[in-house]
Design a protein that fits this description.
The structure holds two protein chains of two kinds. Chain A is of the alpha+beta class. Chain A has 19 helices and 31 strands. In chain A, the strands form seven sheets. A seven-stranded mixed β-sheet of chain A has the order 4-6-2-15-12-13-14, sandwiched between helices. In chain A, a hairpin with a 5-residue loop joins β17 and β18. The longest helix of chain A has 23 residues. Chain A starts with a strand and ends in a 10-residue tail after the last helix. The model of chain A has no long low-confidence stretch (mean pLDDT 97). Chain B is 33% helix and 14% strand. Chain B has a five-stranded mixed β-sheet with strand order 2-1-5-3-4. In chain B, β1 and β2 form a beta hairpin. Chain B starts with a strand and ends with a helix. Classes of the chains: A alpha+beta, B alpha+beta. At the A-B interface, α1, α3 and α17 of A face α1, α2, α3, α4 and α5 of B. Chain B: One of its GO terms (molecular function) is metal ion binding. Chain B: This is Xanthine dehydrogenase YagT iron-sulfur-binding subunit.
């Protein structure tokens, strides 16, 4: 029984609003929780296959040039070494971008960035492989590298089809009552998921089986098949648990192909785990950006012009450019508008998607500029934003599917106590600390991606959900169980969720905040089909069917599901995006409020309070959704204050390529955050009436902190992260207070 | 090299390459993959285990240094159906997301509560003499050697505070 559903028109009534199992939306514990807290959840590198060998990647020790020779003999005789793989044609130059259906650029004779994997040393043990990888002698031919972004910025070329013009922004700027015209810069960042990229490959005849730490298995399978010259049917990828991704595991990485090639050559399973340094050097980064933001407003504080132009870097042959104006294009009104992206060719590790590509850094500039504009106009920052919420999309004139932005701003401000804020900067000194408050809007586009799942009702009354969807910490296991339990009227522990195996129906994968809605809808549709079949068995209409606590009720008949079903009852469903994706602007919205303390003498910044108020349609599990928002907000803290992946301008290496020097927020950097969701349903998004939540929390978060820093001490820093060296020379004299 | 040590109450006799870290010994030789490798450089805390009751980064220690030692890993603290109080609290408070740093967080927190009880001061303690109180600030400070990129920190603090009786 297959169901195909295209989201062509809004769904008026969701089954989830009619059932009474009382499981959907509830803050239930993660169903896989006990496995995770007891160390029994198995991640890719933790499967042990018989006769498994260990591979360690060798990265290029130059930033640009060519490999002249890899002296295999230099390590062959070392104890335990099995082989050195130097497949210069098949090895990946860089990871695939998310959702690519083909392999990324292959071939590693020429070196395009420092650390590019060029060989794999395979040995009987990890210790032997690591030692040999360090000892491997490689000679290079050096070439001039393009390592200095600032020096090359004039060579930026427009990204194809990124330019958008409406009206005349320059004229709007000239005739504005007040305007902001400034540049913001953000550094390269690393997703830095806690689990390093890992692949364990083995061959079953001509078929490749790979345990891989990846986010999107159905497209990863196509990428890997293409890279290895295989039929996708002959590639199976498994990822039951993934230790975080944040974009860095959207596409296959160099370690996957290296492991597959080695396993084939050796005739043994081969495991390759990247070192933390290799994760920084040879996976994917968020590009640094230079963003030129222009806002023009009239005397009433209504925007008349909005311009957001972005310059990013990337490798030759790659056209991804952080779409920093993504939210700027629909968030605020203004008749005159200009957007565009330009790319500077760099010999640096691949730039691609990291959590909320676009909004995550774009809203630092936009929401910073709005804060500056509010001050120029002497309008409260919350009020300025409310005043500029457009009725419809300012360019396409399309309606919004659902948008509780004004409510988020109002309720967020009330809960935070915004009215007590002193609008003049450097007004509050507590001991040696300047105290300030800032806010920013949150907005992140919502998407639906094709996704399939199979749901089977077993004769014992249990349900089984199977899909190649992943759970990268996002709560997939639990929310899919909640959807199935709610719709089939089962207790949640009567639902088994099997994820992360390409033998199951292909899912959207985890990325772009679309996973829960897309994979969740496929489970919804399959359950809807099963409900129909059950109704037929009971000889009635599905509208009259009530499924609750394992019982099926129709009128006066009531029967346990386990007695009603003699054979396993199966339904496979696929959802696809349709017309509602084109007819409506879909996004999650929210408001961030932050209180910071800036040390009056050192410029050290501490986040003291941070609150997010969000609306993203139906919340599928309040507990896991809050955690997703916490995660985004803390990424915002890192972005605002500490994260800065530094590229050496002379040799092209990444200077701080580990977790000691690339500063993620630690526990002590994060106060007890607060998150509130507003009740909302989005009928144009999907039958769950839910929108994505994984990236909403980061969008705007860093700007709220930057604006709070300005309010605290009167120093406006437009160059992220806002480290103390950027503040210390400009701090006001505390003696005045 | 030959080595005898006790892991989770079971004595093991192993013959190991002297280059094997304690972490790799657990993961690759004893199939105790609950202890995680996040950086292999003592920077992330995912590999935290208890060595004779004290928390250490097992990636920074060679296995052969532990002749006769008693190691407790996350697997030794509890399992489904009989979770330790901290393990159960991490589930109840959603003190994780992807779960990769979680075993390290829980091992670390297990020892940390003992350190507070024993009166060890921290950077945020008021002074070096008094019994430190299990405030949120103390928990955050003492748990900052365990990184969590999913950023479950607020929930981790809640979980530990509940078990340690922090917010009485």
């Amino acid at each position: 029984m297959d169901v195909n559903f295209k989201m062509d028109k809004p769904v008026e009534r969701s089954l989830l609003d009619t059932t009474n199992q009382n499981i959907i939306s509830r803050p239930l514990d993660r169903i896989e929780g006990p496995l995770k807290v007891s160390g029994r959840a198995k991640y890719s590198a933790e499967f042990k296959l018989p006769n498994m060998a260990h591979g360690v990647l060798v990265g290029a020790a130059i930033g640009k040039g060519r490999v002249k020779e890899i002296d295999v003999k230099s390590v062959e005789a070392l104890p335990g070494v099995l082989m050195v793989v130097t497949d210069t044609e098949k090895f990946l130059r860089n990871p695939a971008q998310g959702m690519d259906t083909e392999a990324p650029k292959q071939g590693v004779t020429s070196i395009d960035y420092f650390g590019q994997p060029i060989a794999l040393v395979v040995a009987e043990t990890f210790e032997a492989a690591r030692n040999a990888a360090n000892a491997l002698s490689v000679t290079y031919e050096d070439a001039e590298g393009r390592f200095d972004f600032d020096a090359r910025i004039d060579t930026a070329k427009p990204k194809k089809d990124s330019e958008k013009n409406q009206g005349d922004v320059d004229d709007a700027m000239r005739s504005a009552h007040a305007n902001v015209d400034a540049k913001w810069t953000t550094p390269s960042q690393s997703s830095a998921a806690m689990e390093p990229h890992a692949s364990l490959a083995h061959w079953e005849g001509q078929k490749l089986v790979l345990y891989g730490s990846y986010q999107m298995l159905s497209s990863n399978r196509l990428q890997l098949a293409d890279a290895m010259g295989l039929d996708p049917e002959d590639v199976r990828i498994l990822a039951h648990y993934v230790g975080g991704g944040f974009g860095a595991k959207l596409g296959i990485g160099p370690e996957s192909v290296a492991a597959a090639v080695a396993a084939k050559d050796l005739g043994r399973p081969v495991r390759v785990v990247m070192t933390r340094q290799q994760v920084f050097e040879a996976t994917v980064r968020r590009s640094n950006t230079v963003q030129h933001l222009q806002l023009a407003a009239d005397a009433e504080g209504r925007l008349t012009g909005v311009s957001h132009e972005t310059i990013t870097g990337n490798l030759e042959g790659e056209d991804f450019s952080e779409p920093a104006s993504a939210a700027t294009q629909f968030l605020y009104s203004g008749a005159n508008r200009r957007f565009g992206n330009e790319i500077v060719l760099m010999d640096q590790v691949l730039a691609g998607s990291m959590r909320a590509p676009g909004e995550a850094v774009g809203m630092l500039a936009l929401e910073g500029a709005m804060d500056e504009l509010a001050e120029l106009l002497d309008v409260d920052p919350v009020e300025l934003r409310k005043r500029n919420i457009p009725e419809r999309h300012p360019t396409s004139d399309l309606p919004f599917s659902s948008r509780s932005l004004a409510e988020c701003l109002e309720i967020g401000a009330r809960d935070f106590g915004w009215s007590k804020r002193k609008s003049a900067p450097a007004s509050t000194l507590e001991g040696e600390w300047w105290i300030g408050h800032g806010m920013a809007t949150a907005a992140r586009s919502n998407m639906l991606i094709k996704s399939s799942a199979r749901v089977t009702l077993q004769p014992d009354g249990r349900a089984l959900v199977e899909t190649d969807m992943t759970d990268i910490g996002t709560g997939t296991y639990t929310i899919l169980a909640q959807i199935a339990a709610e719709l089939l009227g089962l207790p949640i522990d009567a639902v088994d969720i099997h994820l992360g195996d390409t033998n199951f129906p292909p899912a959207s994968g985890s990325g772009g905040s679309f996973g829960a809605a897309s994979a969740g809808t496929s489970v919804y549709l399959a359950c809807e089909k099963l409900r129909q079949t059950i109704a037929e068995k009971l000889g009635g209409e599905v509208e009259d069917l009530v499924l609750s606590d394992g019982m099926a009720r129709m009128g006066n008949t009531s029967e346990p599901l386990s007695e009603l079903i003699a054979e396993p009852l199966e339904a496979t469903a696929t959802v696809e995006p349709g017309e509602t994706g084109k007819a409506f602007v879909q996004a999650g919205f929210g408001a961030h409020f932050a209180e910071v303390a800036v040390h009056a003498h050192t410029g050290e910044v501490r986040v003291r309070r941070m609150e997010g108020t969000f609306a993203a349609g139906r919340i599928l599990n309040e507990k896991t959704a809050i955690s997703q928002c916490f995660g985004g907000m803390v990424f915002g803290i890192g972005t605002a204050l500490t994260e800065d992946m530094m590229h050496d301008h002379r040799y092209g290496h990444i200077v701080n390529r580990d977790l000691a020097e690339y500063h993620l927020p630690v526990n002590a950097d994060v106060p007890q955050l607060k998150v509130k969701f507003l009740e909302e349903r989005d009928h144009a998004a999907n039958p769950l009436l839910a929108k994505g939540i994984g990236e909403l929390g980061i969008s705007g978060a860093g700007a709220a902190i930057a604006n709070a820093i300005y309010n605290a001490c009167g120093v406006r820093v437009r160059d992220y992260p806002i480290t103390l060296d950027k503040l210390i020379d400009h701090l006001p004299d505390p003696k005045g207070l | 090299m030959h080595l005898t040590l006790t892991v989770n109450g079971t004595e093991h006799a192993l013959d190991l390459d002297p280059r094997t870290s304690l972490l790799d010994m657990l993961r690759d030789h004893l199939d105790l993959t609950g202890s995680k490798k996040g950086c292999d450089h003592g920077q992330c805390g995912a590999c935290t285990v208890l060595l004779n009751g004290r928390r250490i980064n097992s990636c920074l220690s060679l296995a052969v240094m532990h002749e006769g030692d008693e190691i407790t890993t996350i697997e030794g603290l509890g399992e489904e159906g009989k979770l330790s109080p901290l393990q159960a609290a991490f589930v109840a408070h959603d003190g994780y997301q992807c779960g990769y740093c979680t075993p390290g967080q829980i091992c670390s927190a297990t020892a940390m509560l003992g350190e507070v009880e024993a009166g060890w001061p921290s950077h945020v303690s008021d002074n070096l003499e008094d019994q430190p109180q299990l405030t949120d600030a103390e928990i955050s400070e003492r748990m900052s050697g365990n990184l969590c990129r999913c950023s479950a920190y607020p929930n981790i603090v809640d979980a530990i505070s509940e078990v340690g009786g922090g917010r009485k």
